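re: that chain from earlier
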Amino acid sequence: MKSCMVDDVVGEVTISITRRARRVTLSVRPSGEVRLSFPPYISLKRATAFLQERREWVLSARERFKQRIAEGKSASQITPEQIEQMRAAAKATLPLRLAELAARHGLKYNKVTIRATRSKWGSCTATGNISLSLFLMMLPEHLRDYIILHELAHTIHHNHSAQFHALVNHLTGGRERELASELRKYSTR
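^ sequence. v structure.
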């Protein structure tokens, strides 16, 4: 179950009560979004107290993401702890966004996996399995969408032909070249 609350210091917080959770966790996405997750047997009061104890961490995490994105830092400059934070954020965000964009454009894929791939942002197999790099979380949301749409286009064209690029250009509202150029400022390595 998801809902939202507003904290006096960190602002809007997404509340996620899920049976999969074993404890209270707090995550900050590169977009600045804050998520507080916990199992149903933990009270909202206790989870909120956890958030309040970690307000400074939330603010500093937001600032680190903001600086990293502004500087176009590569994935090689990220600590193992930050990678694990990105992995959690990627698993919570990317499959849902993939499903949303696929449905919006009438495209189908088989399954999705999230990996710590440094060689590329994503890939698509001939059977329609899409793999996305957790390092996508370093990108602004519009570039994450561009990568996802690029991989969805591979479910139709399994190459980088003119037809493939025409489809990506259509899916991105005529912005493929612009987005591809902007993406070159970032690196998974």
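The mean pLDDT is 88.
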